[in-house]
Specification:
The protein is of the alpha+beta class. The chain has helices at about 25-35, 60-65, 145-150, 170-180, 195-205, 250-255, 255-260; strands at about 5-10, 15-20, 45-50, 80, 95-100, 105-110, 125-130, 135-140, 160-165, 210-215, 230-235, 240-245. The chain starts with 5 loop residues before the first strand and ends with a helix.
Amino acid sequence: MNFPIRLYAILYPNTSLIASQLDPEHFAKHYISGSTRHYDGKMMFVEVDPGFRHPYFRIDEAVAEVVPHEDGRPKATKFISCYRVLEHLDLEAILQLYLTTSEGHCLGLQPGPHESDGHDEATLRVFAEIAPLRMLALARHSFEEFGSYITDPANPKGAPALFYTQLELEVDEFLADFDANPMLLSPIPGLHPSKLRDSILELRSKRSKPLKGISLHSTFEKIPYRIVQGGFMFASGTQNRFFPLPDLHEIENTNYKFWKHM
């Protein structure tokens, strides 16, 4: 049986470019639980145009080795590269983004337009870097501005390309609730609410400071997809590619298993 050969770029929990004969759903299940390599958690990856080529990747050599097993099973994974993958991908070659729960339920997202919410110095937003950086940041930037800032070649603390998202947070509402109840659970799992409050107050007091790291790791393993605001963004300098996340009701109606564990 002939299986089409697909290219997948893993974004979380690690970064790598892989050739495979599995479709996206079977690939996700294999990566999470079907391989001899141990992993227990969520996964995010993209399907890349099979015609994509870049001198950095030895894709043709890898593809030549992707053949079914002797018993007829499709080849699950052929690793092409595990280092500096995202910065060498053409954002336009990304066909679809897949979010996967730790149970292996998969949701595919198509690219779409992003309507900017504009720049507002007084508005603070929380951004979770996912690949290749992993910081959690509080910033004055809009969603697009954050990606441009991090991937600006003049930024010594940035990266050439970035995959990230914005998390839901009503800053004033959180401050009021935390002031009234210091035992309040953090709106962002893995981040102590007092550290979040202190970071908000610091950034508000220093108007010249554009952003502040609030966690050394975005702990995306602990962050539910439910608190993602709007969707996911790829950025590389002045280029970006957005993958909107449908509203929860639509996900519940079209992909109940994913919705139940998201």
